[in-house]
Amino acid sequence: MDTWWNFVVGRRHQLFVDSYLHVSAVVQSLLIATTVAVLVGVAVYRSPFGSAAATAAAGTILTVPSFALLGLLIPLMGLGVAPTVTALVLYALLPILRNTLIGLSSVDTAVVDAARGVGMNRLRVLAAIELPLAWPSILTGMRVSTQLIMGILALAAYAKGPGLGNLIFSGLARLGSPNAVPQALTGTVLIVVLALVLDGIFVLVGRFTIPRGIRA
To answer: pTM to 2 decimals?
Structure first.
C-alpha cells in the first residue's frame, strides 16, 4: 500500500494531466456522438425501416472489437487523437441513437396534435415539444455511452491515444519492476473514479434540465 501511495504522490502532476486528457477525449467524443445520433434519430424516427436500419448500422459498429477498429483506423488516420476520437464516437452512437428513437417515439400523439392545433409547424413541434419530452431518454443514452467509452479509451493507448490507458499499458509491460503494479492499478482506479464522477454530473444535469413532471 505504501508503494502505491508513494507512486501516486510522486507522479501526481502526470496523473492529473493524464486524467484531464482522458476526460477531455471522452467528453469531446460524446458531444460529437450525441449530435450525430440525435440528428439521425430525428431524421428516421417516423420511419420503422429507417429506424431499424440506423439501429442495425450502429449496432454492427459496436460488435467490432476495439483493437480491430483501431487497427483499421490507424492506416487511414495515423496514430494519436484522430483514430481514438473516431473510434469513441462510433462506439458511443448506439446507446444515444436507440434512446433518441425511443424517446421521440414515446411522445404522446395527442400532445403533438394539440401543438399542431394551435398553429405550430413541424420544426417547432420538434424543438418545443418532442425533443424536450425525449430529453430524459437521450440523457440516459449519453450516460450509458459515457461509461462505455471511458473503458474503451484505455485501449486507445494501442494507437498512442491520450489518457490513462498509457499508464496501464506501461505498467503491464513492466511487470516485475517495483512500480509496475502500482502504475497499472492507479490507471484502472482513476478510470473508475472518473467514470463515477461523470455519471454524478449527468445526474445533476438531469435534475436541472428535466422538469419534475416528466422526471422518472
So the answer is: 0.89
